[in-house]
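Input chain follows. Return C-alpha cells only.
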Amino acid sequence: MDGMKHPETLVIHYGGGAIPPRSDAKVKTISLGRDRFKLILPSLFLPALILSLHITFALSSTNKMPGIGRIAIAATALAATVLGVAPPAQNPLSKASKTHLVDSQKLQDLVSIDKLSKRAEELYDIAKLSEPDFNRPTRVIGSKGHEGTLRYITDTLHSLGKYYTVTTQTFPLTTSTVFESHLVVGDAVYADAKPFSGTPPTKDKEPVHAPLVLVSRTGCRASDYPAAAKDGIVIVQRGECAFGLKSELAGKAGAKAAIIYNTDDEDISGTLGDPKPDQVATFGISLSRGAALVARLAAGEHIDAIAYIDAAIETINTKNVIAQTTAGDQDQCVVLGGHSDSVEAGPGINDDGSGSLSLLEIAVQLAAFDVHNCVRFAWWSAEEEGLVGSTFYANSLSAEENQKVRVFVDLDMMASPNYAYQVYNSTNAVNPEGSEELRDLATDWYTSQGLNYTFNEFDGRSDYVGFIQHGIPAGGWSTGAEGVKTEAEVALFGGVAGEWYDKNYHQIGDDVSNLNLEAWETNTKLIAHTVATYARSFKGFPERKKPASVAAAGKGSASQFKYRGPYAII
C-alpha cells in the first residue's frame, strides 16, 4: 500500500492522549487561523479512514475548510476506533475530574455573605406566609411558612439540573398544641408551671380538682404509685426514666394529672415523647417548688390542687428533603443535615434557617465541581418536635444503606448574635468510631484560621441522635442557643457575658436582624471545607464497622442522651 498515491486527509489526534508516531506515519501540521492541529495517522489505515468518512481534501494555500469542527470530531472517534484506542467516555465530568475535582479553598472562596443574607431575607418572606393563620411569621410544621420553605429548597435543587438526585421522605407526626394551662396548689397559683410537650389535655378539657399525692422514689415503676394516686394529682421527682413513662404510669394508677419537679431550680422544657393512651396532663415545676411541697406532704399535710390544660393532639404528614450527588462513589457518602422547621413562636431564621441555608448555598456551589465520594444533603422536618424527621430517616435505613453513610454532620444554629464557635465533643469513647475524627477536622480548621473554639456537650439537642443510635459516626458545630456566655468565652470570641448566645432563641425576634454575619460566613466556610474534604477522600477516616447491634457496641444508647431536640426527655 505504500506505493499507492493518496490525497492528504484531515483528522485531529485523539484527545484522550497522544498516539505515539510510528515509522510509517504521515504527519501533517495545518494552520487554521490561530489553531494548529497535529495529524498522526499510520498510512496503513488511511484508505479505511477515507472510505469511512467519504471526506477528502485537496490541501492548498488557498483552500477554505468549512465545517472543520464537525468533521474533526467525527474523525477523532473514528480514528481512535481504527487504531484500537477507546474513544473518550461521554461522562460530562470525566474531563473535569482532573481539573475540577472539588477543592476546599476554591469551594470556601465561593461562600458569600451577600448570597447568604439574600437567602435569609427570602426565607423570612416565606415565614410571613403563615401570618394570616398564626398572627406571626413562623415556619412551624404544618404551616404555610414551612410548606414554602420545603418548596424553596426543592426548587433551588431542581434548578441545578441532574447534578443531584432529589427526593422527599414523607412521614406521619403526632403533634400537641397547648392553648391554655393553669396549675393551682393550695392557694398558690404556679404561673411558672410548664405543660410538657406532647401532653394530653385534662379530662374534657376542664379543670380537675384533686388532692396532691406524693410518689415514692422516682416514679419509674408501677409499685412507686400508692393507692391514693387514684383520682389524685401526683407529684414525682425528675430522673432515672423518661418523662413520658412517669406520665403513663401515673395514668395507669388512675391519677387525674401529674406534676414532675426538677432536680435544680431551672424550668423543665420537657417532652412526653410519643403519645401513649394512658398518659395524663403533665406539668413541670422547679426544684424549690417541688421540694417545698414534698416536705409538706411528708409532714402529713393535706394539699388540694387544681390542674387545667386545654390541648389538641393531631397527626399530620410532613417530609424530609434529600439531595445526593449523582456523581461520586455511591457507597461512600458524607451526609450533612439541618432542619427546615421552626418553633411556632417565630420565624426561626437562626434556628435553623442559618444551618439549612448554609447547606443549600454549599449545595448550589458544589455543583460546579466533580466529586470522588457522594455528598448527601438533608433538610429534616419536625426537629423542633423532638428530632422526629432525622430519627425517622435513620430508622428507615436498611443495613446496606446504613453502611454507605461514612459520617453525618449536624448543622444547627450557625449565626447566633452573641456567638461562640462550639464543636460537639463527639469522642470515639462513647460514640461510633469516626465521630472524633469529624470533631478534630472542625477544630483543626478553626485553628488553621486563627480562630478559637470550645467544646459543646454532645447531649442529644440536635439531629445527630438517630445516627449515633444506629452506629453511624456523627458530630457537628453550632454557635449556641439559650446558654449563658461566660467571661472566659468573651475573651475568646467577644460579645457580652451573662447573656444568652441567642437572646431570641425560640422567640419572634429570631428574624434577619438576629444573625451574626461574621459567624455565619465563617461556619459556612467550615461546612465547605468539610464537604470538599470528604467528597475528595475518606483517607485516614475509620472504616465503618458492622456490629450485631448498636447496643452490642455499647454506644448510642438512649441513656446517653438527656434531650430529644430542645426538650429534655429524662
